[in-house]
Amino acid sequence: MKNNELIQRYIYAVTKRLPRKSQEDVARELESLISDMLEEATGGLEPTEKEVRVVLTKLGSPRLLAASYHPDQAGLIPQPYYNQYLMVLPVVLAAVSGGIAIALVLAAFFDGPSTLNQLTGGNATETAASIGKLVGGILGGIFEAALQAFFWVTLIFAIIARRGISLDGEKDFLDTLPEIPQNRKPIGKGGPIVGIVFSVAFSIVMLTIPQVIFIINTDYSPNPFPVFNLELMARLWPAILLIGLTGIISNCMTLIEGQYTKRLLVVNLACNLVFVVCAVIWLGDGSILSTEYREIMGSILSGETVPNLMMQNLNLLVLGAIFLGVIIDTIESIYTTFKK
Amino acid sequence: MGREDIVASLVQELRRGSIVMLVLSRLGKPKYGYNLIKELEQFGIMVEANTLYPLMRRLESQGLLESVWDTAESKPRKYYVITGEGKEVLSAVKGYWSNSVTAINKLLEEEDS
Q1: Which of the residues A26, A59, A90, A221 has an alpha carbon 20 to 30 A from that of A306?
Q2: pLDDT by residue (tens digit) across A62-74?
C-alpha cells in the first residue's frame, strides 16, 4: 500500500470515531504530526513503508487514539470502551422502547370494540380515567423495558471493560484499516434507528401477539378474529424471527458503516435475500390466513368479484408487494453504492 | 504484579499528575505540538504524542489554551498558546505545587524508619 494511502486511511480510521465537528481539525493536526514524526525518523528523506508503519504503530491503534480524545471517565466503564458504550446504548434503548411501545399500543387495542367502547362510552370522567389507565400502562411498560435494556447493556460493557476484552484486533490494525469512502455522503442515523425500532416491534408483535391483527364483522359475530392462522404462525416462528433479525442486522450494519460502502451493500443484499426466502415461507401458502378471516371477508365482499379474490389471497398480495419492495431497494442500493 | 510493575505504575501516576501544569507552563509563547514534545524531551520529560495532542485539545476546550492554524509555512501547523484564564489557573496550581513539594521533600527527608 502506498505511504500516503496508508496514512490517510489511518487518519480516517481515527477521525471517523470522533464527533463530526472536530473530525476535520483533528485530521489536519494528525497529518501535520505524522509528517513531523516521519521527518525526524528519516532526516528529511522520503520515508519507506516500514518507517511509516513504525510511526503509525507508535501512535497506536485508531480505536485507542480516538478514545484518548475523550476525557477518561473514572467510572464503571473506562475508556476506550466508554466511547463504544455511548454509541451502542442510545440505539438499543431506542430500538427496545420503540418496539415495545408499538407492541403495547397494538395489544391494548386488541380487544377492538370493547376497548374503544370503554374509552368513548360513559361520561367524561370515566373516559379520562380509562385513557389515563391505558396510557399509564403503556408508559409503564416502555419504562420497564428501557430500564432492563439499560441495565443489560451497561452490565455487559462493564464486564467487557473489566476483562479487558479487546473489541477489535489491536495488534494488526495497520493491515485492517477501513477504506476511505470516495465522496460518499454519510448516511443519517435517524433512518436506520427507525428501521430497527420497526423490526423489533414486528418481531415482538408477530411472535407473541399476532392476534392483534384482527378482522371483525359484527353481522357475523361480535368478536374480533385474528387474520392469521395462529397455530401455523406459532410453527413458523423461525422464519418470522429471521425476518425481524434481517431488519435489525441490516440497519445495524448501516449505522456502523455510516456510508454506502461495498461491504454494506453485500450485507444488505444478503439480508434482502434471507428476508424474501422467509417471507415466502411465511406467506406463500394460503393456509396462513385463518378460516374465520376468509369467512368474514367473504361475507363482507360477497361473490366472485375481484376485490373478494384479492382479499382472499391477501397473503399473496403482500408477498408480491414485498418482492417489489425488495427489487426496488436492491436496484437503489446498487445504484447508490456504485455511482460516482 | 512484580516490583517493577508497581514502581512503573506509581511513577506514571506522579507524571500524570503534573503533566497539565507543565504543558501550560511551556505555552507562554505559541508552539505546536511536536515542538513542545521535543522541548520537554530536552528537560528529560518524555510525553507521547498520542497523550499530548488530545490533552492540548482538551485544555483548549476548557479555555486554558487557544489555537491558531499557521498556513504561511510550507507545512500547515496548529499553534497553541496559553490564555488569560490559563495563566490564572497555572499560577494557582504552581502555588499549590511549590507548597506540596516543599512539604513532601521535608517528609521524605525525615523518613520515619
Answers
A1: A221
A2: 888 988 887 666 6
**In the block, residue with C-alpha cell 408477498:** A319
Residue B53 has what pLDDT? 93
Q: Which of B53, B57, B69 sits opposite A33 (nearest CB)?
A: B53
Assigned C-alpha cell, A11: 487518519
pLDDT at residue A113 is higher than 60: no
With 0-12 / 13-18 / 19 or more C-beta atoms within 10 angstroms meaning exposed / middle / buried, residue A15 is buried
Q: What distance, in Å, lies between the first and last C-alpha atoms of chain B?
A: 25
pLDDT digits (tens, 9 = 90+) for B66-96: 999 988 878 889 999 999 999 999 999 999 9
Rounded Cα distance between A72 and A239, Å, is 44
CA distances from residue A112 to A215, A227, A296 in whole angstroms, order as listed:
9, 13, 16
Identify the CA nearest to B47 among candidates B24, B75, B15, B76. Answer: B15
Q: How far apart are CA A193 and CA A186, in angstroms?
A: 15
Helix H or strand E segment including A78: none
Global pTM value: 0.64
Q: Is the dihedral of CA A324, A327, A330, A332 positive or negative?
A: negative
User: How many angstroms away from the CA of B77 is the closest CA of chain A?
Assistant: 6
Question: What's the CA gap between B91 and B88, in Å, rounded?
Answer: 5
- The answer to whether B65 touches B30, Cβ cutoff 8 Å, is no
Nearest to A204 by CA among A241, A174, A170, A258: A241
Q: What pLDDT was estimated at residue A29?
A: 93
Of B108, B93, B99, B89, the closest CA to residue B17 belongs to B93
A28 at B interface, C-beta within 8 A: yes
Q: What is the pLDDT of residue B7?
A: 93
Closest CB to B34 among A33, A64, A68:
A33
